[in-house]
Amino acid sequence: MQLEDFGSTMPFPPRINPHLEDIRAGHERWLRRYRLISDDADAESFKEWKMVELAARAYPEATARGLRLAADALAWFFRFDDLFDGGPLACDILRAEKIVAAVTRIADDPSFMPEADEMPVIGAFRDIRSRSVHAMSPEWIERSADRWRGYFQGNLKETTIRAGGTPISLNELIRLRRYTIAAAPSADLNECACAFEISDEVALNPHFQGMEADTADAIIFVNDLWSASKEESAGEPFNAISVIQSEAHCDRRTAQIKVAGLLDDRVRRFTHRRTVFEDWLSGQKMTERERSAAFHQAAHLQDWIRANYDWSLESSRYRECS
């Protein structure tokens, strides 16, 4: 399947980090250390998900150390996501609340140790959070912790909706998935992976925040185009294609074309907003370091949109989907 199958294109050029092969072995050791893979067969299967390749595409300017952090974090996101999407926390509200409470505490304080026996994702997240806050300012740590909380609470809300069997509209789905697609904490990781910080003035700029929302939406729509079959078979309700089919009483192909159209809209909107944002930047009284950080973070958001599309074509995670 290609976006062109639905009359859609991805105009942004691909980029890739030169440290890709340098981090591969260390990434696998980390997965084993934190029991995110169980044995050699699981390791081989997980390699086909191509987490290292996704990180290298999404974080092309990261240092080798930063790219390792990004790859480990992306692998963690998918393992955590799978606990909820068709996993043991899909409808278990009490257990989900317990796990979310633990990782939320760790986002605020990486040294926090839960009293209960840990699931592998908890210890792995503590390591990711400890590494990501290293050498970052208190302001960045507070901002990123808040965005982690949004991600965790979004997953908990999905569990509540699943357990109640409550239908969800397309607009509600998009608002919720902007949190659960993890675009915000993934973007924050670029700052520590590349050793810079954007200013509060940039982070709060409405054009920049709009670019972040467009990035999240573009990731959502590509993800949903590729994963619709898998999620439908698992009874997963949080896919734009299935929601559109239900709302519009249309067939799968019509819904796919609609989602591809929404993707095109977000890509065009992102491109316009980036131009407006960079024009705004050029007129601001900032240090060169602040201006450079802002330009680099805007470029990262565009890289993420392209990276997610290229990865979706390559990864075995969705290869069976159509």
Q: What this model shows, in words?
A:
The chain is an all-alpha fold. It contains 14 helices and no strands. Helix 11 runs parallel beside helix 14 (288-314) and helix 13 (252-282) runs antiparallel to helix 14 (288-314). It is globular and about 55 Å long. The protein starts with 19 loop residues before the first helix and ends in an 8-residue tail after the last helix. The model has no long low-confidence stretch (mean pLDDT 94).
Query: Got a strand count?
Result: 0
N-to-C CA distance: 7 Å
Number of domains: 1
CATH topology: Farnesyl Diphosphate Synthase
Q: What is the average per-residue confidence, as pLDDT, rounded to a whole number?
A: 94
Strand content: under 5%
What's the Cα radius of gyration?
19 Å
Q: Ranges with pLDDT <50 over ≥5 residues? A: none
Shape: globular
Assigned CATH superfamily: Farnesyl Diphosphate Synthase
**Structural class from helices and strands?**
mainly alpha
Q: Specify the biggest β-sheet.
A: none
**CATH class call:** Mainly Alpha
User: Percent range for helical residues?
Assistant: over 70%
CATH arch. level architecture: Orthogonal Bundle
Task: Annotate the secondary structure layout.
Layout (H helix, E strand, L loop, with lengths): L19 H14 L6 H8 L3 H8 L5 H21 L8 H16 L11 H14 L4 H27 L5 H11 L2 H12 L5 H4 L2 H28 L6 H9 L3 H31 L5 H27 L8
Helix pairs in contact: 1-3, 1-4, 3-4, 3-14, 4-6, 4-9, 5-6, 5-7, 7-8, 8-11, 11-13, 11-14, 12-13, 13-14
